[in-house]
Amino acid sequence: MRLKEPFVIASQSIVECDHLICIVNTDSGVSGVGAVATIPAFMGETGETIEAAMIYLSDGMKGKDPFGIDRIVQQFDEQLPGNNSAKAALDLALHDLMGRALGLPVYRLLGGAVRHRIPLAWIIGLKSVKETVDEAVRKYQGGFKVIKVKIGHDDGEDLEKIRLIRNELGADALIRVDANCAYTADGGLRILSKLEQFDLELIEQPCRQADITGMRRLRQALQTPILADESVMSPEDALRIVMEEAADIINIKVGKVGGIAKARRIAAIADAGGLPIVMSGNLELGPGIAASAHVAASLKNARYATDIFVGGHKHFDDTILEGWGEEGMTIRVPEGHGLGVTVRPEFMPEAS
Ligand SMILES: [Mg+2]
């Protein structure tokens, strides 16, 4: 799928995004559909590797009860470490299948909704100072009260962007920044300590994925809450962030962490550690956005605005029949059975 314009982050530039859709069929005739987007430099998986991993994992699903989701997810990890995007596609399809079999929306399988409308944030990729400020103003005037700005390419430009955006939008706008692993702790401290004067809502993933020590140093030195994204790919990563007090908030994406079951385990660890979460996305389309909305609806600590639907805005097209019913910069969690969305027939995989 082509994007309307290149989406550039500190680690990658995306012009086209591969999306994978899978269907899980049962002998009772009920099926479920899952989908993921690919961001290779973020996830370490390409469309080709995801497809191969899904086919490999699907062999072990044959003959299993889809309601044994925890056992199946455990088996995925035993069979093939990593490959979270491939596992997410299958996990989403299984949740869709369970909901359709019971005639319930997925959020009801997850303990019910604590909110039915999910507040949305807009993301601006790396672009020139003028383009960034113009887009922030346009989106803010269009109703987005939370603007996330990608940083980490040029400190001088980043400072200028955030200064001008705060100046243009005024004191009420929530401005968050995402460095996508761009800094060392020392380099990050130099620029982020200057950005803080413009009252940031949060700072996302300042240091490299493995640099938990650096992230903790920044957390101790800065006033702004630190959000861990790339550093939390698994429940084990989340536990380490909690134990080492390395971040204030944890970013969860169903595509990043391997699906809905893993997302909920991470949220439970964060909650036990007193940390809120931000639900977020990997530029997913229909089914991935729906899955993220069901998770966001069901978690009491998912109290930040989310960018889960941004993929739908940044692509020319979507894979589903439904619209999102955006209203007041929120989307409603789908009420249909399963994930509550219908993938358009031309995107449906052939039965095998
Ligand atoms: Mg991020």
Protein model, in words:
41% of the residues lie in helices and 17% in strands. With 352 residues, the chain is α/β, with parallel strands linked by helices. It folds into two domains: 2-105, 2-Layer Sandwich (Enolase-like, domain 1); 109-332, TIM Barrel (Alpha-Beta Barrel). Strands 6-7-8-9-10-11-12 form a seven-stranded parallel sheet. A two-stranded antiparallel sheet has the order 1-2. Strands 3-4 form a two-stranded antiparallel ribbon. Helix 10 (235-243) links the parallel strand 10 (226-228) and strand 11. Helix 2 (47-59) packs across helix 4, helix 8 (185-195) runs parallel beside helix 9 (212-221) and helix 10 (235-243) runs parallel beside helix 12. Bound molecules: magnesium ion.
Helix content: 40-55%
CATH topology of the largest domain, what is it called? TIM Barrel
- Give the H and E element order: EEEEHHHHHEEHEHEHEHEHEHHEHHE
> Which overall shape is indicated by the principal axes computed on the Cα atoms?
globular
Major sheet attributes: 7 strands, parallel
Summarize the structure.
This protein is α/β, with parallel strands linked by helices and 352 residues long. The protein is built from 14 helices and 13 strands.
